[in-house]
């Protein structure tokens, strides 16, 4: 397995993984819009690759991209004593390659990058019903600190 910084050549493979994640969310809750309604994904990916406040990592196995993780440095919320935080904006590992430590390896590399930028705190959002993802993030040291509720 190879974890590396994404390049523009990776755009279509990353979008294919995004589709997997979007489709999974859509199957669990119609609140999420279908993949066909997403616009500008190539530009979104390529902008993330070029942005010095973002790191887009890919996981490669068998000469194919099987996962990615996007982390961004953002202003901390107004109630925080920090000025900036790291936010894991987006991540997915292809179903076939899950439970092989890929997420952990990508996160550790992203964490190293953030620490190098003097970022101490990392945040992410995960659908609370996605028990597998919640477990994975908790194994990596994340804990509940905020609960976001929704009502239709």
Structural notes for this entry:
The chain is of the alpha+beta class and 152 residues long. The protein has one domain (2-137): Gcn5-related N-acetyltransferase (GNAT) (Aminopeptidase). 34% of the residues lie in helices and 24% in strands. The chain has helices at 11-28, 41-50, 102-116, 131-139; strands at residues 2-5, 54-61, 64-75, 84-93, 122-124. Strand 2 (54-61) and strand 3 form a beta hairpin. Helix 1 crosses helix 2. The longest helix is centred in the first third of the chain and has 18 residues, at 11-28. The model has no long low-confidence stretch (mean pLDDT 94).
Largest sheet: 5 strands, mixed
Share of helix, binned: 25-40%
Give the SSE string: EHHEEEHEH
- The level 1 CATH classification is Alpha Beta
Given helix and strand content, the structural type is alpha+beta
Give a short overview.
The chain is built from four helices and five strands. The protein has 152 residues and is an alpha+beta fold. β4 (84-93), α3 and β5 (122-124) form a beta-alpha-beta unit.
């Amino acid at each position: 397995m190879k974890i590396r910084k994404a390049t523009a050549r990776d755009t279509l493979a990353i979008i294919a993984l995004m589709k997997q994640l979007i489709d999974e969310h859509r199957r669990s809750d119609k609140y999420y819009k279908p993949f066909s309604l997403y616009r500008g994904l190539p530009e979104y990916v390529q902008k993330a690759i070029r942005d010095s406040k973002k790191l887009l990592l890919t996981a490669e196995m068998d000469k194919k991209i099987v996962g990615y993780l996007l982390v961004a440095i953002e202003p901390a919320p107004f109630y925080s004593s920090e000025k900036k935080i790291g936010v894991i904006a987006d991540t997915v590992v292809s179903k076939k390659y899950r439970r092989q430590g890929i997420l952990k390896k990508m996160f550790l590399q992203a964490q190293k990058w953030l620490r190098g930028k003097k970022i101490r705190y990392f945040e992410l959002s995960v659908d609370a019903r996605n028990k597998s993802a919640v477990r994975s993030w908790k194994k990596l040291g994340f804990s509940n600190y905020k609960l976001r509720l929704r009502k239709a």
